[in-house]
């Protein structure tokens, strides 16, 4: 799947910044930062395995976004959830967690 977020601004949610600082091991922080660089340059970069995350319209409305996406941080263990708002042309890096944590938060 090829897609482009050209012209979109990438933001980190404030809660996520604290969570990353306080809860992620240093090695995972470094991998996460490098993956963000890949995302900003090429969302289709192969190691990201970027794909749309299926959520209900109700959740999209609650979040105030157009779409929810994910990319892998380290294999399939840790993932990053990000929101896309096409109207505002922004990508919001929202959550980092393992598969079960993400499933609990978004399903």
Would you give an account of this structure?
By secondary structure, the chain is an alpha+beta fold. The protein has one domain: 2-Layer Sandwich (YaeB-like fold). The chain contains four helices and five strands. The chain has helices spanning 14-23, 26-41, 57-63, 99-106; strands at residues 9-12, 51-52, 67-74, 78-85, 90-98. It has a five-stranded mixed beta sheet. Strand 4 and strand 5 form a beta hairpin. The chain starts with 8 loop residues before the first strand and ends with a helix. The mean pLDDT is 89.
- CATH-defined architecture: 2-Layer Sandwich
CATH class bucket: Alpha Beta
The biggest beta sheet reads: 5 strands, mixed
SSE series: EHHEHEEEH
DSSP helix fraction: 25-40%
Percent of residues in beta strands = 25-35%
Identify low-pLDDT runs.
Answer: none
Give the terminus-to-terminus CA distance: 24 Å
Query: Strand sequence of the main sheet, in spatial order?
Result: 1-5-4-3-2
> Which of globular, elongated, flat, extended, rod-shaped describes the shape?
globular
Count structural domains.
1
CATH superfamily: RelE-like
Mean pLDDT score = 89
CATH topology assignment: YaeB-like fold
Number of strands: 5
Task: Indicate the multimeric state.
Answer: single chain
Helix count, DSSP H or I runs of 4 or more residues: 4
From the alpha carbons, calculate the radius of gyration and give it in angstroms: 13 Å
């Amino acid at each position: 799947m090829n897609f482009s977020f050209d012209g979109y601004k990438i933001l980190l949610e404030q809660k996520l910044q604290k969570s990353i600082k306080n809860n992620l091991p240093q090695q995972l922080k470094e991998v996460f930062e490098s993956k963000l660089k890949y995302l900003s340059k090429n969302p289709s970069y192969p190691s990201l395995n970027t794909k749309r995350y299926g959520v209900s319209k109700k959740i999209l409305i609650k979040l105030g976004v157009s779409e929810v996406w994910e990319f892998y941080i380290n294999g399939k263990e840790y993932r990053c959830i990000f929101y896309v708002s096409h109207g505002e042309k922004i990508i919001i890096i929202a959550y980092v967690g393992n598969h079960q944590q993400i499933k609990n938060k978004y399903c």
